[in-house]
């Protein structure tokens, strides 16, 4: 069994982030602030040697990943491996919709009008379930569907032959995806009602069949 360090960076700021819209599987480009933020993160990680790098196949993740890898001075990989398995949650009918409005529609029928209310009473997983329930097309991912996909994504990372015991691995990810990792593997040590900042770092120790969060929303 090997253990490696997964450096999970939330992508740089996008226009949908400014407009406070859900962007799941949809795309909006990095803003100038988002590009500069990614460059700032790149400087902080410039001397860390990564044996592999991964991101979703969304442009915001790929752009952020390339900025970080291009600035790396430790002889890391040149390009990230991309996979749809590593995408953000799919919000179905509510892709691109106003974030507070969407979570109101999902949670209000249960007496929980905000995302934070749902998470405080239940979990991020329950929020996913409520959103699928509210989706008139029922295409949004519920918690089981989301983790079926992401378990495959984590196995995709684990299976990389370039990763050895003690190595560092880069993953460019998304806000809700980072929160979901922290909820599942953080052992209750972190406040998952607090969204990770764009460009922030969350660290996990990954083994063959488990993971543990060792730092969250580091800026």
UniProtKB/TrEMBL annotation:
Q: Which InterPro entries match?
A: His_Pase_superF_clade-1 (IPR013078), His_PPase_superfam (IPR029033), Phosphoglycerate_Mutase (IPR051695)
Q: What name has this protein been given in UniProt? A: Histidine phosphatase family protein
Annotated GO biological process: negative regulation of glycolytic process; regulation of pentose-phosphate shunt
The positions annotated for binding substrate are 10-17, 60, 88-91
Q: Which domain of life is it from?
A: Bacteria
Question: Recorded GO terms, molecular function?
Answer: fructose-2,6-bisphosphate 2-phosphatase activity
CDD domains tied to this protein: HP_PGM_like
Q: Which UniProt keywords apply?
A: Hydrolase
List of catalytic residues: 11 (tele-phosphohistidine intermediate), 88 (proton donor/acceptor)
Identify the species of origin: Apilactobacillus bombintestini
GO terms under cellular component: cytosol
